[in-house]
Amino acid sequence: MSRALPKYHKRRVAMIGGAAAVVLSGAVIAGSALAGETSNNGDQAATNASPGTVNCPAVEGSLPEIPASAQAEVDSNLAQLDTQISEANQRLVDTVGQGGPNFVQNAILGPLEDKRVAALNRIETAIGRAAEKPEGLEALAACELNAGGAGEAGGEAEEEPTEEATGAAGENAGGAGAGDAGNAEDDENGAGAEDEGNAGAAGAISCPDVESSLPADIPASAQAEVDSNLAQLDNQISEANQRIVDTVGQGGPNFVQNAILGPLEDKRVAALNRIETAIGRAAEKPEGLEALAACELNQ
Q1: Mean pLDDT score of the chain, rounded to an integer?
Q2: How does DSSP classify residue 45?
Q3: How far apart are CA 144 and CA 215, in angstroms?
Q4: Cα dist from 277 to 5, 152, 274, whole Å
Q5: May I ask which residue range the UniProt record assigns to the signal sequence (predicted)?
Q6: In the predicted model, is pLDDT for residue 94 greater than 50?
Q7: Helix, strand and coil percent figures for the chain, each rounded to 5
């Protein structure tokens, strides 16, 4: 009896020790799972970081005294400038993770600058009809991305993780779960949709002819300025065609419209407004040339 007790105790100790090992293994597995969840949540938090906001120079404080007859048009264009910034900020949010390292500049800040140039030119023209025309407002057109938070990484840091995540998806194809789904979505937006958006960019831009729509008799004092702006219109088309070649495979399905055709239209509006103004200084001002601004891509 006295000899059986040690064996019993040994068996009991062995059973307790085995149970403890099972509990410890479960704790390790649970700890690993929690660690993985924490890492995934951390990655998700990084992915969902704020893309920042657009910061543009103030315009209103740089304007001269505005004639009463121009006030409504100036106010309308100032409101458009505010709307353009709001739309650009929304695009930053909507396009997180899309495009290449220059996506924000090419698809958001660049087009925004072109839109602001057009609005600033309209403000100059409106004031110039009743008072001395202000010059140089275009210097206020360029905007930048606030560096606060993840703002500075709005374009670059959002794309680079996408490439890394895409590579990780290939290496960990068996066990990423939702992570693979996220990468697949990024791949679809960043590769498939890019091809869909810009693969058909092999073509040329077609814009309405402007010269044939001008008055038959352009005042001699305006001829040089009109010719200069007509040359600018041709240069703008050439530059846009080159951008189509240079950006093949970039952006989403609307890249060509948002980053090339849209900005081109804004530049053309500004040039057409300058032509109207130049002629209007010495003769009846032509109206409605802006209808010739929109261009399309020939497939």
Answers
A1: 72
A2: H
A3: 40
A4: 110, 39, 5
A5: 1-35
A6: yes
A7: 70, 5, 30
What token pair was written down for 207? Answer: 């814009």
Q: Structure pTM?
A: 0.47
Contact between 70 and 130 (Cβ < 8 Å):
yes
Q: Which two tokens stand for residue 23?
A: 């509990």
HSE toward the beta carbon, residue 217, CA cutoff 13 A: 4
Q: Are 111 and 259 in contact (CB under 8 A)?
A: yes
Instruction: Give residue-wise pLDDT tens across range 29-77.
Output: 444 443 444 444 444 443 455 678 999 999 999 999 999 999 999 999 9
Residue 54 vs residues 5, 133, 206, 252: alpha-carbon distances, Å:
80, 29, 31, 21
Among all chains, which residue has been given the structure tokens 């399309």?
Answer: 296
Sign of the alpha-carbon dihedral angle for 101, 106, 110, 111: negative
Name the residue type at position 65: E
Alpha carbon of 124 to those of 13, 200, 208: distances in Å?
Answer: 92, 38, 25
| Residue 226: Cβ within 10 Å count | 20
DSSP designation for 205:
E
CA angle 184, 185, 190 (to 5 degrees): 95
Question: CA-CA distance, 296 to 148, in Å (whole number)?
Answer: 38
The CA distance from 127 to 63, in Å, is 9
Residue 162 pLDDT class (50, 70, 90 cuts)? very low
Q: How confident is the model at residue 284 (pLDDT cuts 50, 70, 90)?
A: very high
Which two three-digit tokens encode residue 7?
A: 């064996």
pLDDT of the residue at 283: 92
